[in-house]
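Researcher: Here's the sequence for the chain we discussed earlier.
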Amino acid sequence: MGDLSNAIRARRGALALLVGLGLLAAALIVFLVARGEEAALAGKQRVPKLPARTYVASVESTGLDNNGLRSFTVSCDDGDHLLSGGFRNLDFGAQLVSSFPGGTGDNPHWTVEWRTAADATATVTLLADCADFSPAH
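Model: Thanks. This is the structure I predict for it:
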């Protein structure tokens, strides 16, 4: 019985050592990755801290026609910042031309352009991912 107890204690000690070494290795990796990211940012302009609150502004439209090229824009609220944008649910038969950010200052927006056949209309849902700066929504 004594040999069995000693063997169990030895295995527990070895297991504890392995767990401790694993935790140490994980901490070292986190430290090195953080240093690498900091080095990658060296000399680059930092962006002011973004708020934790974000929202998606969306609008569904058939677009404004300009000789077969349709376009429409979705905007963030005044004072908020555009993070990204895009579209979904572009009707069958419509051809995407472009999807891009625009606007400056207090009027950030996302524009989508698409083409349809001359006698057709297509509906698209435009999306803008926005950072919500005070006052909160």
